[in-house]
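Twin-arginine translocation pathway signal
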Amino acid sequence: MTRSTLSRRAFLARSALLGCSAAASPLMTPVSLAAAPWDTRVVVIILRGGMDGLDALRPYGDPDFAALRPGLAAARDPALDLAGGFGLHPALSGLMPLWAQGELGFVQAVSTPYRDKRSHFDGQDMLEAGTETLGSGQEGWLNRMLQQMPGVEAETAYAVGRGEMKVLLGPADVADWTPDAALRMSPQALQLAELMMEEDPAFHAALSEAVALSDDGSGIMAAEQSMTRDMRAALRGAPHVKIAEFVAERLRGETRVAAFSLIGWDTHRQQERSLGASLERLTQTLLTLREASGPQVWGKTAVVAMTEFGRTVRMNGTGGTDHGTGGAMVLSGGAIRGGRVLGDWPGLAEADLYERRDLMPTGDVRASAAWILRAATGLDRQVMESLVFPGLDMGRDPGLML
């Protein structure tokens, strides 16, 4: 399909005349349904705020853990025990069937090269840029990967959610979608828009999609543009469920890369309550992706959930934890070689901690992402280390993918 020559600015000007809301993000990006150049699906979830990997994935087997986190050690549940002396947070218990089937895994004691200042903004910028230093580039590592692949078009990759997904920022075509996008058009305006775009297949398809995603059942939209029953149900659900449903639907088609974020991981106070709620959302997100994508697509999917940094080993005076360094990475999907906790565990003795306060990072979170991308796309190691993640040494292949 050839892309329309109508400019985005001209189209938005026309939309304004029709009374369209510019919030309908499918109208903001070019849409084409070309065949993707590879078959494996990669979903990247940014856990914004700094997930506490010592609580999400509790290192019961470490002799110093009980003294540092006595409440967690006392709450050990043998039913949630994993390999190598680790156990899941109770809010992740719904993922135990995935663990048993080899569709869930973890990498402990990992981080980006970011150190010491512990700023969310800088940490997330470095995580999504995939670079060695701050300010060394504006492109995201997923976009740099897409630039190396032939035949990539907007429908190949989706950035999903309200905020900017810097991990997909760059010149490679990427489509965007926001779960609460709203398009309000009268039947007369809709008919006029369809007439205007009748000879422009790309924008006509985009309009149809935007109308479908925005229909709230009020009856003002044309009946032929209504969504499927499953999509309607998803759009009435919680935001993270809506996003997971939408991503799964796209993965069943031409989309091969999707990225979105989950917030709520900055647990300075009352961590027991707030972290549990965030982990439940992560559990629901992964299970929704699995169910909605279907066995065939899920079997070709790798989900990578990563965070900008971990948190302090010791709790603070308000029952929370502060910004740290080493953390945990969550892997899921039918294409993942799961049922394992990977990473070089550094220990929790005070002398083993980073600056005597944080979990010591022994691995680079970018290396795990690089091995997954390499397995999914076939790009060689030199391209991954020099262009996708500049300056990275991927190290030995950990065999993350089937």
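thats it. The first strand starts at residue 41 and ends at 47. The domain at 36-180+238-388 is CATH 3.40.720 (Alkaline Phosphatase, subunit A). bye
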